[in-house]
Amino acid sequence: MLETTNAKNSVSEHSCHRDGRASTVAVSPLFSGSKGNCTLIQCGNVNILLDAGFSYKAILRALSERGLTQKDIDAIIITHEHTDHIAALPYWGKSCSTPIYAPAPIADYLRQRVYFCEVHEICGSFDIGGMTVDVYECSHDARSCCGYRFSNGNGYFACVTDTGCYDDRLIEFLSPCGAIMLESNHDLNMLVKGEYSYVLKQRILSPYGHLSNVQAAEVVQKLAHSRVKTIILAHLSEKNNTKELAFNATVAALSSCGLVEGRDVTVYVADQYKNEVTVCVD
What pLDDT does residue 19 have? Predict the structure, then answer.
């Protein structure tokens, strides 16, 4: 069972009624965008942060709003080493020894920045908090960048951002999921006509950059008749995208496949600063 509510051009408030079963995976995007990323994933009594790239104090406030403290976080899983995904780690590690899981090539880099946290190297699928976590290797200009798929044995949730292109591996990775968080970083016209330097524009547009709204929509089309029923569009550029553009591109892709947003598939657009949505996958 997947619990959601309708959302149009922004994330809407939703309370996920968890019935105490350890099998329920609850996903709450806390912060998502070019300035920082952090997502709360819960299964039973286990609380996991996927990335900690926003303000340390802001993350603590977001957790407090959900009745959690820093000590309630059982693990932090990192996608890659860019600042918008790890900015809070040095501050977090000064007061709490939360285990950190990260791709093996960046483990030593993180160890130099979090003195009181043990850093576990991810080299493939692993188990954590009653969930199996599968790994997708993203195409990004980082030492190593991974997307993750969480399974409780029944349902699946996956998060894949910071990848400059997609392939059949990504479609296969996302297809079993009831809910996904997918990058929809930029609108091509806004990026090309925007203020970024030529070099930065080329970096974003390269196969090692970020997925555009059009690319995200193409992925959605390929997933149209899969198990995916909820899509969270994430990692939007603050200067080169809008929620409306990202949302409309995905909805158009669904429509081209005969699917209606809000009836067949629900689409959310994650916000950089404030999100009040939780998606549950049983």
Answer: 45
Instruction: Evaluate whether 212 touches 245 at the Cβ level (below 8 Å).
Output: no
pLDDT at 161: 98
Contact between residue 250 and residue 231 where contact means Cβ atoms under 8 Å apart: yes
Angle at 172 between CA 169 and CA 173, to 5 degrees: 85
Determine the Cα–Cα distance for residues 202 and 211; give it in Å rounded to an integer: 13
pLDDT band at 59 (very low <50, low <70, confident <90, very high): very high
Q: At what angle do helices 243-256 and 213-222 cross, to 10 degrees?
A: 30
Q: Six-digit token pair at 153?
A: 């044995």
Q: Where are the alpha helices (DSSP H) in the chain?
A: 56-65, 83-86, 89-95, 107-111, 168-174, 188-193, 198-205, 213-222, 243-256
**CA-based end-to-end distance of the chain:** 5
CB-based burial of residue 74 (10 Å sphere; 0-12 exposed, 13-18 middle, 19+ buried)? middle
| Mean pLDDT computed over 36-57 | 96
Average pLDDT over residues 186-194: 98
pTM, whole model, 2 decimals? 0.91
In the predicted structure, residue 169 carries a pLDDT above the cut 50: yes
Q: Residue 46: how many CA atoms within 13 Å on its side-chain side?
A: 19
At 129 the pLDDT is 87
CA 189 to chain centre: 24
